[in-house]
Design a protein that fits this description.
CATH topology of the largest domain: Rossmann fold
Structural class: alpha+beta
Distance between the termini: 36 Å
Mean pLDDT: 93
Strand order of the largest sheet: 7-6-10-8-9
Number of strands: 18
CATH class of the largest domain: Alpha Beta
Largest sheet: 5 strands, mixed
CATH architecture of the largest domain: 3-Layer(aba) Sandwich
Radius of gyration: 21 Å
Bound molecules: iron/sulfur cluster
CATH superfamily of the largest domain: NADH-ubiquinone oxidoreductase 51kDa subunit
Helix content: 25-40%
Low-confidence stretches: none
Amino acid sequence: MSLLGEQVKAAGVVGCGGAGFPTHVKVGARAEYVIANGAECEPLLRVDQQLMIARADEVIAGLELMGEAVGASRLIIALKKKYQGAIDALRTEIARLHSRVELSLLGGYYPAGDEQVLVYDVTGRLVPEGGIPLDVGVVVDNVGTLINLYQASRGVPVTHRFLTVTGEVKNPVTLSVPVGAFVEDVIAAAGGTTVDEYEILDGGPIMGAFTSGYVSKKTTGLIVLPRDHKQVLYKQRSIEIDIKRAAWACDQCRACTDMCPRYLLGHRIEPHIIMRLVGQQRADAIPPEDLAKAYLCCQCGLCGMFACPTTISPDKVIAALVGAMKEKGVARTLLSDKFDPHPIREGRKIPVSRISRRIDVLRYDRDAPLKSEPLAVNRVRIPLHQNVGVPCQPMVKIGDRVEEGMMIGRPPEGSLGAPIHASISGVVEHIFDDSIFIRA
Ligand code: SF4
Ligand code: SF4
């Protein structure tokens, strides 16, 4: 492994756009392009667009380091045309540093930041079905990940992460938070909630999942929504009800398929067919090659939250199907690169404002200014598993004194994973099955 690979591995850098893939693995790849993903396509999130202003130099430095490591000839930051402040800041820094980094300006559609959509829109290359960007010579990293990579090259581990706190809070804010900070402490930093009955999403309002726990390296935002909000009810609805709805409410209009961003790239995912078969309770009779098409879903949620006129949930049904297939060991058999994008793909791109209105979050579309000072907390519960791959094993015991930045857990030798570090100085009070509790 290269020196940079070792540094990135030791610093515990993982994809911080929400995926959590260990970044040192990408550092060891060979690729023609590196794309810094600054699209930030979920509504309400304000992290990447502000980091590209406040820390433009570090985004560029991280991108150049990654580009050098993988031997890339093109280094591109992809961001939305409407992020004018970020565009200005990046252009100024690129000129000042005489950098070869280029900008690629995207429309304001959802999901512009989906890796495979991004690769096609920036390079014109189509990632094969069931493949990854590297299959077409591209490495994609979130802009925050590249800042962490740059910091890792200077010996600084990942102890904090930037996230947006918004929704039903008094003062929406974007700030740096110690990994493992309790969600309630972070919500308090945004002035507290404005409603008594609420749920909190970890991530954006579309793809986020309910949380009441603590922040991880993958937490892009905390969105507070009233308990009876449309999105809360959609996400809470049981899969049994979704399957029943597939049977009695799906009229096979195909809107879910026609708007699916992966179908529009030419992949053979057709949610309306999956819904037909599931509704007829024939999922067991689906030929394995058809069943495996569910693996082509990126869980963007467009089919259920925007396309379907009867608010059936193909995304949730497909997620359940994929979970069941993984348990049964059904292989990802689709690996085709013989396809073309749909001829009217451009016309079917969905503006973020339209999906925001549909899921009723436009009212929360407010500034969430970036705070320069990190949040100070007196307790953290640092998850042992924050990445694609295996969890960490603790390297500390109860009663140990730890300093911020000290490695406190690492994955077993030879396995895919990333170490974790103390995000505050203090004493290890508890070691749970899934986390390490430190009190300042
Ligand atoms: S969630 Fe729906 S729209 Fe998105 S990729 Fe999956 S099937 Fe397609
Ligand atoms: S959009 Fe809804 S009603 Fe139409 S085919 Fe898809 S799941 Fe059925």
